[in-house]
Amino acid sequence: MSDPGFNFDQKEAVFSTPWFRLMKIPHQDGRDFYALESEDAVAALTRSIDGRFLLVRQYRPAMATYTLEMPAGGVDLNETPAQAILREVAEETGYQAPEAVYLGQFFLDSSRLSKKVTLFFCDQAVQVGEPETGIELVLWTKEELEAQIVENRFDEAVGIAAHFMAQAKGLY
């Protein structure tokens, strides 16, 4: 492939927050390209010991509404992605899973975001506490989850990807 013409050695942050950085990447033709950089994340399709899937409803200011999504979050210092998702599942749902099975990794939006999400399947989760403040726990059977996806009422891309990846790997 030919040289795409970007001057990555001149890449600079033009705006920065604790959650993301807006990066300017100059192109050799004089145009600038802008991208959002943020820390990578983990997410899990989580099934309880009674076979229901754990979803979290929480308010997302970027969407100006409540969303329904899988437990997810960042990876802390000195933590593996698998350890991070087990912690996030417990914090967000009040459930503890015995293990996190790796499903895969993908980019959320490769045209503007550098963020990658590592997906896991957590099975046999048991309730050990309550969901995090500000989060409503929603439990769906496999049939309910699939119906919500087909009817476009569950529209979180990460959750849909995890569902199909887990099925393709024969995990349920």
TrEMBL record:
<feature type="domain" description="Nudix hydrolase">
    <location>
        <begin position="37"/>
        <end position="162"/>
    </location>
</feature>
<dbReference type="InterPro" id="IPR020084">
    <property type="entry name" value="NUDIX_hydrolase_CS"/>
</dbReference>
<protein>
    <recommendedName>
        <fullName>GDP-mannose pyrophosphatase</fullName>
    </recommendedName>
</protein>
<dbReference type="GO" id="GO:0019693">
    <property type="term" value="P:ribose phosphate metabolic process"/>
</dbReference>
<dbReference type="InterPro" id="IPR015797">
    <property type="entry name" value="NUDIX_hydrolase-like_dom_sf"/>
</dbReference>
<dbReference type="GO" id="GO:0006753">
    <property type="term" value="P:nucleoside phosphate metabolic process"/>
</dbReference>
<dbReference type="InterPro" id="IPR000086">
    <property type="entry name" value="NUDIX_hydrolase_dom"/>
</dbReference>
<keyword id="KW-0378">Hydrolase</keyword>
<comment type="similarity">
    <text>Belongs to the Nudix hydrolase family. NudK subfamily.</text>
</comment>
<dbReference type="GO" id="GO:0016787">
    <property type="term" value="F:hydrolase activity"/>
</dbReference>
<dbReference type="Pfam" id="PF00293">
    <property type="entry name" value="NUDIX"/>
</dbReference>
